[in-house]
Amino acid sequence: MSEASFDLALEGATVIRRASPLDLVEDATILVRGDRIAYAGPRAGAPRGATAARSIDLSGQLVVPGLVNVHTHTILTMVRGVAEDMGFAPAYTPGVPHGHDVSPDEAVALARLGALEAMLFGSTLINDSFVHAERTLPAMAEVGLRVTACSRIHDVDFSRVHLGEWRHDPGIGARTLEAAVALHERLDGQANGRIGVQLTPHAPDTCSKALLAEVERFATPRAIGVATHLSQSRIENRRIAEREGCTPTELLDTVGLLNERLIAAHGIYMSDADIARAGRARMNLAHIPKGNATGGQIAPTRKLREAGVNLALATDNMHADMVEVMRWALCMARVQADRIDDDWQPSHVLDMATLGGARAMGLAAELGALEAGRRADLVALDFRRAHLVPRTNMLGTLVHNGQGRDVTTVVVDGRVVVDDGRPTLVDAAAIIDDAERAARALWQRARAQF
């Protein structure tokens, strides 16, 4: 292949190379060689005589860096449309399917549905956790996107929590941690780096202090990322206060997990002292504005960012539209401040969804911006649609009016995995049918128990 020969050329789009500070190029060309971006800039500045094995005309479209969803539970697609109106998390609620109810085959079917939805809506990377990750992780990666996943680590007996019984069993902790370690050793870095494994202690209230310390002892020397829930409920804060005499944030700090490799989801009930502590540690927050608002809550994101916490965005349960999440992140921050200001603008929330997410995943040098040498992960959205016209300010229109359904093209590692809105590697109809059958079976069993 000559220097002027490329694998993929994307022509004519408006391209946001980097969200904050905003770097936008109109009538742009992106050239991809292998899994890397070779050129991203004005069409007039592209290498002369460049040819590509495939060219795609994206005139009238907007291209952004691939969206990074740092906290998902794809299997929990099984409770969408129900759990949103029930109050706290399904794991704590009787009468709905729980993680311990899900068979490995059902887990695969539901996880592939969640991964497919995320990819079709523009996520090029998801960070997932729940159950049966040894099966779901490779199955999700086959859909085409970049996936980091792990089964939840815990020593509480989840089969009794929804009945109000909280019992920590060291045997459960040993088994779940050993499974996570084995998964990391077997799969981390596979598929040209598209498959990753972090350690995912479920939450401070479902993990004993001893188990959290064991997670730290394995993760820290190897610089492995850790993801958990943090101050997601008053129940969690109350249990940790009773059990340990401190806040969940203080507990994670005590065991050595509060650092720049931690992705903590929610952070709704963090005190000012917790926020300052997390900021000093350069913790990453998986901000889930739509999910939190559905439950009537808002995370203190302004305070967290001002303290030094890296904000990244996530969908959590039941849906996978990161475009919608950006809109909620912008609006909820403005509700907190009771104003519109320069600190919370569309460029900031796109940055959270791209480079902020890449930073949280330890991939800021590889992902999150469209620049030569970076991985070719990108998303095109069709701005010829009625709700996205006129194209006066495409970034503002994307955040305020856009939807995941506006995605036409997704490229991951230089490979087109969504083409004209359809997946290229898998049968979408088959995935949808398999997930529907799995969910129906789970709900039938769950309802029969009560």
Fold and architecture overview:
With 450 residues, this protein is α/β, with parallel strands linked by helices. It has 2 domains: 5-65 and 374-423, Urease, subunit C, domain 1 (Roll); 67-360, Alpha-Beta Barrel (TIM Barrel). The chain contains 15 helices and 17 strands. Strands 1, 2, 3, 4, 5, 14, 15, 16 and 17 form a 9-stranded mixed sheet that branches. The protein has a 4-stranded parallel sheet with strand order 6-7-8-9. Strand 2 (23-33) and strand 3 (36-42) form a beta hairpin. Helix 1 packs parallel to helix 2 and helix 12 (346-353) crosses helix 14. It is globular, with a radius of gyration of 21 Å. The termini are far apart.
How much helix is in the residues?
A: 25-40%
Low-confidence stretches are none
Average pLDDT over all residues? 95
The beta-strand count equals 17
Q: What is the gyration radius calculated from CA atoms? A: 21 Å
- Label the overall shape: globular
Structural class: alpha/beta
Strand portion, in percent? 15-25%
Our count of helices gives: 15
Q: In the CATH hierarchy, what is the class of the largest domain?
A: Alpha Beta
CATH architecture of the largest domain: Alpha-Beta Barrel
Q: Could you say how many structural domains there are in total?
A: 2
CATH fold type of the largest domain: TIM Barrel
